[in-house]
């Protein structure tokens, strides 16, 4: 019984992780589009290696709430 429960838990975790990854990719892609449309392609490129900047841009463009 424990093996079956472990399998179910592992499957749920894997599915949740895959969904979270897909949402993250969509958010980054959306940010890239919005910045490109705003003529701020360089900001997008910088944000790919600067997670602090990326977070600020997510908030600025309404893709994430400020904390």
Describe this protein with a few key phrases.
67 residues; mainly alpha; 3 helices; elongated
Strand content: under 5%
Terminus-to-terminus distance = 42 Å
Total number of beta strands: 0
Low-pLDDT windows of residues: none
- Secondary structure class reads mainly alpha
What does the radius of gyration come to? Answer: 17 Å
Q: Gist?
A:
The chain is mostly helical and 67 residues long.
Protein architecture, described:
The protein is an all-alpha fold. It has three helices and no strands. α1 runs antiparallel to α2 and α2 crosses α3. The chain is elongated, with a radius of gyration of 17 Å. 7% of the residues are buried.
Element layout with pairings:
Layout: H1 2-37, H2 41-47, H3 51-60
């Amino acid at each position: 019984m424990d093996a079956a429960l472990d399998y179910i838990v592992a499957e749920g975790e894997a599915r949740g992780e895959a969904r979270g990854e897909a949402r993250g990719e969509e958010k980054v892609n959306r940010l890239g589009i919005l910045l490109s449309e705003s003529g701020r392609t360089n900001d997008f490129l910088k944000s790919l290696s600067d997670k602090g900047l990326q977070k600020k841009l997510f908030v600025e463009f309404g893709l994430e709430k400020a904390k």
